């Protein structure tokens, strides 16, 4: 263990709690990179989507609904559409003006629900304030809700059934599992309780038998809890929220945050929610930003699309066999 780690433990009064199976690095932490895992998943998807096209005669479509212009979302959407192209999926960007009414937006989603070429639908958040979020989420067909935001899929997750998972939350957990980090029995702390990231990540970590605590914007003294973590997942959208003095030596950190900040040279750059510089000598392993959870999220989302497309194609074929029309 480096002197820096011991010094931090003394300064914060923290109890050392390294995660089992993770070597404490002597020259910087182990970086849990998502990109190589994502590349592996994409390679498998390319084969799977080619086989799908061979069997069913078409490439499935992912519809991405974007309401209004939003710079950080636009970057994210371009990444998804590029990933679609790489694996043989058709990406369809549905751009809608920010002055759209909730009814008109739901009608557009209904149209995509009824389009047999569209296997999956994601609606880019945040939506303009005048549009009730729940009305829009409820209008997505749960069978095409590949990012697991519909109440049906959220309910399936909380009961431990096999619905569509929110891809970012799944990526946060997958990066741990695929890096060989044991979760069962660990003190796991999740910062953030949103329906798309923090809450589902906590449920998935509980499913992996972690002992999970959830922190949020009203939690008093975050450090009191984060210092107890053996695994810390941070999804708050606050750059630099978690600093080195809030961590115990050997903790494994998954930084889900993606924040655009101005660098010293004035150029924009992406950072996470964890202050990497002060954390790097204390943690045993950490996901980088960018290059950690983000790339894995997109790859996992497309595995959900594969599953949705197959379910829909098989169910249409079964219905055709018994003579039921597609629109019946
Ligand atoms: P959100 O704004 O919906 O939720 C943020 C959560 O953090 C809330 O539950 C809030 O209670 C909590 N929080 C905010 N400030 C806090 C504080 N000071 N202390 C403790 N908790 C606090 O955001 P989200 O959609 O859950 O996204 C979280 C982060 O993850 C963002 O940075 C977002 O850009 C990023 N994100 C990454 C990916 C990816 O693929 N890596 C995908 C989606 C979102």
Descriptive report:
- The protein folds into two domains: 3-32 and 179-295, Rossmann fold; 57-147, 3-Layer(aba) Sandwich (Rossmann fold), CATH 3.40.50.
- By secondary structure, the protein is of the alpha/beta class.
- The protein is globular and about 65 Å long.
- It is built from eleven helices and eleven strands.
- Helix 2 packs parallel to helix 11, helix 7 (167-178) packs across helix 8 (198-207) and helix 7 packs across helix 11.
- Mean pLDDT is 90; it is low at 1-25.
- The chain binds nicotinamide-adenine-dinucleotide (NAD).
Mean pLDDT, all residues = 90
Could you spell the SSE succession in H and E letters? HEHEHEHEHHHEHEHEEEEHEH
Query: How many H/I helical runs?
Result: 11
Q: Ranges with pLDDT <50 over ≥5 residues?
A: 1-25
Give the cofactors and ligands.
nicotinamide-adenine-dinucleotide
Number of domains as seen in the coordinates? 2
* Record field, number of beta strands: 11
Radius of gyration over C-alpha positions, nearest whole angstrom: 21 Å
Task: Note the main sheet.
Answer: 6 strands, parallel
What is the CATH domain class of the largest domain?
Answer: Alpha Beta
Helical residue percent band: 40-55%
Terminal CA distance reads 66 Å
Query: Strand arrangement, largest sheet?
Result: 1-11-8-7-5-6
Question: What would you give as the CATH superfamily of the largest domain?
Answer: NAD(P)-binding Rossmann-like Domain
Beta percentage is 15-25%
CATH architect. name of the largest domain: 3-Layer(aba) Sandwich
Global structural class: alpha/beta
The gross shape turns out to be globular
- What is the CATH topology classification name of the largest domain? Rossmann fold
